[in-house]
Amino acid sequence: MSVGLNIQENVPMRQFTSFRVGGSARFFVDIENVDAIVEAKKFAKQKEIPYFVLGRGSNVVVSDGGYEGLIIRVARGLSHFSFEDNLLVAGAGCPLARLARSSITHNLGGIHLLAGIPGTVGGAIYMNAGAYGEDVSQTLLQVKSLNASGNVITRKNVDCEFSYRHSAFQTNQEIILEATFELKPSPAEPLLAEMERVMSERRQKQPLEFPSAGSTFKRPATGFPGALIETAGLKGYKLGGAQVSEKHANFIINMGNATAQNIYDLSQFVIDRVKENSGVELTREVIFIGKF
After folding, report:
1. Structure confidence by residue, pLDDT tens digits, 228-256
2. pTM over 0.70, yes/no
3. Pair 32, 77: CB distance under 8 Å
4. Which CATH number fits the domain that encloses residue 258?
5. Which of 47, 73, 99 is the last residue of a domain?
6. Is residue 265 part of a domain?
7. Are residues 93 and 191 in the same domain?
8. From the candidates 39, 174, 178, 285, which is the catalytic residue?
9. How many domains does the chain have?
10. Count of Cβ atoms closer than 10 Å to residue 36 Cβ
11. Does the active-site annotation cover 197?
12. Residue 285 annotated to the active site
């Protein structure tokens, strides 16, 4: 075992993912700093096993059979953030909702509408997360990441290859460490009012009372996932303990006794039925790891 790492074995992952399902990780480590990530990668290489970097697990489902690799969790160790004038520097493990709310108290706008997104900064950059017309790429200046050689590099916004729910980090095997955002000075009161309005709208339209990973499918070139799923007659459709939400059809929810396989199978059933009904092939936002 690598020196300085508290690597645990056979850790149940349902406690670390928002769907509250899934098996155990063969190895698991909560990292404290960048050096620990380097050591964790060395551990995985020595064991000849894959690794997966996890934030708050708000967009991840681990197989019921578990993950035969190392889960590197950054949600605690890289959760720092600070403001200087209109610049915000935040670690990859910092909750995006915390930053959105803190930016308002600093009279800064640009990410305040992202307060309802439950993931971390790293996960948000990885997916180019967004809501209500805002996404992280709009205010991002630069990202520090750890490349495959173990070197810390800095990428400017233009080098991150952002597009809808996509970034270069989905293919370049770099681990996001820290990001700098440039926000816009704005009075706190209207920012807060706007944030509270969209948060109220989320509560009314989304099934936040059930475990889920938020939106299950990306928006296709034509149409909206929820409408396509509803038109296919799948709103409220159940498979085991998983259900297409009756409140918002682009949410698959855990009714309380779902398995990871239920969620995967239901998402595939939705993809197949929507393709058959409308000709549109939906793409998952949710990341499934392990064997399904």
Report:
1. 999 999 999 999 999 999 999 999 999 99
2. yes
3. yes
4. 3.90.78.10
5. 73
6. yes
7. yes
8. 285
9. 3
10. 20
11. no
12. yes
